[in-house]
Amino acid sequence: MTIRLPWMSRADRARWRSARTLADLGRLTADWWEGSVRSLPGRRAGHRPDPALAAHVPVLAAANRAGFLASAAQVGLATARVRQKAAVQGFTADPVLIHYLVGAAEKAGLDVVLHDWHDAFYAEHTGGVTVTRTVHGTVVFGQALAVQDIKALWPRLPDAVDAVVPALQITLADAVFGPSDLLWGALADAVRGLNEARLHG
């Protein structure tokens, strides 16, 4: 019999508490995408990625290990009840990675939203991009996150919060609703470009 505990395992708690840098958090989040870490801070214990993202786990894990801490992602979808854009949002403090992410996104015709935590204080700069429409409402990615919002994503992990707050908040989204591989190709291109620059730099 399998017993599912309603709290994060001791091993996962220790892993997240040990994270001190954005790179540490990226590696752990990559492990979560791949399944060797079972829980994310700020989510219910055992929360797993949407199965619809299974084909994109390799590029999401690679992006996290490259320095893009991807905190949320979704595939494009078009049904009678739900319309979604492929989208990802996350954080990075690496200016070279920012260059490759934005460049690849612009080349693919994606929507790009950039914020830092200061933008959350200014209503005119907090907007994001609508990535989901349903009969019940909409979901927006890319709204500027204040320090309190970041604390909610990594509760009781002050070192993680300190690492994330100064980072640039980046959202990439397909320009249209429905299935699309543009986002995932752009993300892969950005990671590939960064890795080649690091190799030859």
From TrEMBL:
It comes from Streptomyces chrestomyceticus. Pfam families: DUF6919. Residues 12-191 form the DUF6919 domain. This is DUF6919 domain-containing protein. It comes from the Bacteria.
